[in-house]
Design brief:
The complex is a heterodimer of chains A (345) and B (438). Chain A has 345 residues and is mainly alpha-helical. Helix content of chain A is 70%, strand content 3%. In chain B, strands 1, 2, 3, 4, 5, 6, 7 and 8 form an eight-stranded mixed beta sheet that branches. In chain B, helix 15 crosses helix 16. The chains are: A mainly alpha (345), B alpha+beta (438).
Chain lengths: 345, 438
């Protein structure tokens, strides 16, 4: 329906005086109109149909399950309304899992983005064998997370792990990577960082390459140093991509499962839930405690939290975007004083 | 139009044929497998099961049968696997191994498993020790599992470490040292303190397994016979917990990670000197020694004694889920795998202890020395240890209580972050959160 008015105007472009009698459109013409109006929707339909099947339906069904007492093996029980939600919100383990998730997320996302940005900036320079370097940073990404987790879990072993062995050689106390909360978060964040830094660096690199080179040249001619160019030209220019990377890593970070699951395969996130993330708690609820109703509740709450985080992300990055808007354009203007037509970019 | 209709008719006929094929497969008038009617049977086991050679043997003896086996590393993961597939209503193998610890959960949905009485369970029921067969029978008298092994417990100990601590190291003297038939946990912990004083090293790997042994030994464990929770206010259980806590507090636990043991290194570097050993654990230790590159020289031995008397921990069953397309063939395979003759072979391969009487007698008669355990006649010893074992009722949440309720509490003791009272009350809180108000 929304498409109607622009479509009609396009069709009526050779506007005749409204009084003139319109000839009855032929079948072919009508088909044409239909084609123009309906085709776009048909073209995008496969995505939405697929989404409805594998995205929307499970989402709704999960909500339905969350309203029931639902046992993993025994199936559907009584309708309990929102009782599962009240109980989960009063559950200390739920809040503990949320704290762990956010803590691991912050420990991974912030250093990861900083390093990715640095790597991308380095890879953006004129390096020898640059494809080799660029592909190399992606290597960790193609290793399956299970293998990564197993190797790191071994390294972070408390009594027999590589890292504590090395620390011991220097006469340092071993770090309790699995039984203390913060060290365990650092260990898990390390796995995440190892896997995702290169991937994010490549995305940021792609964005950096789209920044017009003459901006840099002009800035350099005007005496702007490498750092200045990076902060005043590169960063503002890749802001949309940064926002994308931040949002995807937020979503990924809040759904973290494999790494904490395999960090201690015998428990669901540590013996005292030191590194039990929310998805891991969901898993414990569903497959160990066999309470599918509450597991669905956790899934829904997590969904809402991710939406919330997404919104906050969006608002913050928009604020940054508007706050910075004057600065980069001023810098760019200075940089490209002699070619004003470029400032539009 | 005619053209179209003919096609429609053909499509309907085709669909009907497919449907008939599908229903034909799952109907009870199942054709026996033969070279002309090949059948693939899937089997899921866990831990060290020792079936690999038996599958090949069965395939050879039964042309047309192909066994596709999956082995899951640990019982807990096999539980998740089985529960997930039960919940999904598909994906379970034709033959599924079930562990005693989560049999209680399975019993709640026993109607999802084939009643083996329909496939001749009645004819072979006398093969098993009485209580094992009963465990695999649901309240309605449906037999849903054939017993594979049982878990009578003996004491694994490291002879070399005992010697170094100035303690006797041969099997008979060790059995006597611990009190023989009158062995108690008090003696066990007292000897531990002596060992600790002499060597400064730990006595057992971690508190969890000792606790499992203590609980499995009680007449009623986490549940009463009537299926009521039996933890809060259970003074006998609490007393045992306090005894264990005191031992751990005085440094008798090596605070190892269960099922990990630094990839077995803890078994060869002298971290601890004793280990509670249900029959199947012998296979686990063998695997751990292999992965750490340790052999017979690592000093492990097996004594015919157990603190607190007879105890059974674990053991498994083979069951056939209703989703199996070949229930008769699957039941036949399960019956064959658990028959005495095969149990003897399984025991040789996996070091576990059979649940059928004839197989047990054979093991005793053979008295084969077990190379890994300093040539101890492990079969004979386990047969002795099985005397007086009483099957304990396992409730629906038994494995959750063992792993998620007491697991964390015991880990607190091992890590030295709580005393007995705090750990016990933590266990009660967890019980309340995870089981009572789940």
């Amino acid at each position: 329906m929304e498409g109607k008015s622009p479509m009609t105007t396009t069709l009526n472009r050779p506007a005749k005086p409204p009084a003139a009698a319109k000839p009855k459109p032929t079948f072919k013409q009508r088909l044409n109109v239909f084609d123009v109006k309906a085709s776009p929707y048909l073209y995008i339909a496969p995505f939405f149909i697929l989404f409805a099947l594998v995205g929307l339906f499970p989402l709704v069904y999960t909500f339905v399950v969350s309203l029931f007492d639902w046992h993993l093996l025994k199936g559907q029980g009584d309708f309990v309304g929102l009782q599962n939600f009240t109980e989960v919100l009063h559950d200390r383990f739920f809040w503990n899992s949320l704290f762990n998730t956010v803590s691991i997320f912050l420990l991974s996302a912030i250093p990861q983005l900083a390093v990715a940005l640095f790597l991308a900036a380095v890879l953006d320079q004129n390096l020898r064998a640059r494809t080799f370097w660029r592909m190399s940073v992606l290597l960790p990404y193609i290793v399956t997370p299970v293998a990564v987790a197993m190797i790191f879990t071994n390294m972070f072993g408390e009594q027999y792990g590589l890292i504590n062995n090395v620390l011991g050689n220097f006469g340092l106390d071993p770090v309790m990577w699995k039984s203390e909360t913060l060290p365990s978060h650092v260990a898990i964040a390390t796995m995440v960082n190892w896997r995702w830094t290169g991937y994010n660096a490549l995305i940021l690199l792609a964005a950096m390459q789209a920044v017009p080179r003459d901006l840099y040249e002009s800035a350099a001619l005007d005496g702007a140093g490498a750092l200045r160019r990076f902060f005043s030209i590169t960063l503002p220019s890749i802001r949309p991509t940064m926002v994308f990377v931040v949002i995807t890593s937020t979503i990924g970070g809040l759904q973290i499962f494999t790494e904490p699951r395999l960090f201690d395969p015998a428990t669901a996130g540590g013996s005292q839930r030191q590194f039990q993330t929310t998805v891991l708690y969901l898993w414990e609820m569903a497959f160990q405690r066999q309470n599918f109703g509450k597991a669905s509740t956790i899934a829904w709450l997590l969904f809402l939290i991710i939406v919330l985080f997404g919104l906050i992300n969006y608002l913050i990055s928009r604020r940054i975007a508007t706050a910075d808007a004057a600065k980069p354009s001023r810098a760019a203007r200075r940089a490209t004083r002699h070619r004003p037509e470029r400032t539009k970019r | 139009m005619k053209f179209v209709r003919r096609h429609t008719a053909a499509a309907i006929a085709g669909a009907a044929a497919l449907a008939m094929m599908a229903t034909g497969c799952s109907s009870s008038s199942e054709q026996a497998a033969s070279a002309d009617n090949p059948v693939e049977l899937t089997v899921t086991t866990f831990g060290t099961f020792g079936y690999d050679d038996l599958y090949a043997q069965y395939e050879q003896a039964n042309p047309g049968v192909k066994v596709k086996a999956t082995n899951i590393d640990r019982g807990a993961n096999a539980r998740t696997d089985a529960f997930t597939k039960l919940a999904a209503g598909s994906g379970l193998s034709d033959v599924v191994a079930i562990e005693e610890g989560w049999l209680g959960s399975i019993m709640e949905v026993s109607d999802q498993f084939v009643d083996l009485n329909e496939h001749g369970a009645g004819d072979i029921k006398d093969n098993w020790v009485d209580w094992k067969f009963k465990q695999g029978t649901d309240p309605d008298g449906r037999v849903i599992g054939y017993g594979t092994d049982i878990g009578p417990q003996g004491l694994c100990y490291n002879g070399k470490l005992f010697e170094a601590a100035g303690m006797p190291s041969d099997r008979e003297s060790v059995a006597k040292l611990f009190g023989g038939e009158e062995a108690t946990w008090e003696t066990y912990f007292k000897l531990g303190e002596q060992y600790k004083a002499a060597t400064g090293k730990a006595w057992y790997d971690q508190s969890g397994f000792v606790w499992n042994s203590m609980v499995n030994q009680m007449e009623e464990g986490y549940y009463t016979k009537d299926g009521e929770l039996n933890v809060d206010g259970n003074s006998e259980m609490k007393a045992k917990f306090e005894m264990l806590a005191a031992g751990t507090a005085s440094g008798l636990s090596a605070n190892q990670t269960q099922w990990d043991w630094g990839n077995g290194k803890a078994f060869v570097d002298g971290s601890f000197a004793t280990f509670v050993c249900p029959g199947w654990m012998l296979g686990t230790i063998k695997g751990q020694l292999e992965s750490a590159g340790g052999g017979t020289e690592s000093g492990w031995d097996f004594a015919d004694v157990f603190p607190g008397g007879a105890s059974n921990w674990g053991g498994a069953f083979l069951s056939v889920p209703k989703t199996s397309k070949h229930p008769a063939e699957a039941a036949k395979l399960a019956a064959w795998l658990t028959a005495p003759e095969q149990q003897v072979k399984q025991s040789a391969a996996a070091n576990n202890f059979p649940s059928t009487i004839k197989a047990q007698e054979k093991l005793v008669a053979d008295a084969a020395p077990n190379v890994v355990f300093n040539n101890a006649p492990t079969g004979v010893i386990l047969a002795n240890r099985a005397k007086g074992v009483v099957a304990q009722f396992k409730g629906p949440d038994d494995s959750v209580i063992q792993e998620n309720v007491f697991g964390p509490a015991l880990k607190m003791l091992d890590g030295g972050t709580a005393d007995a009272d705090k750990a016990w009350s933590e266990a009660l809180t967890l019980l309340n959160d995870l089981v009572v108000n789940n």
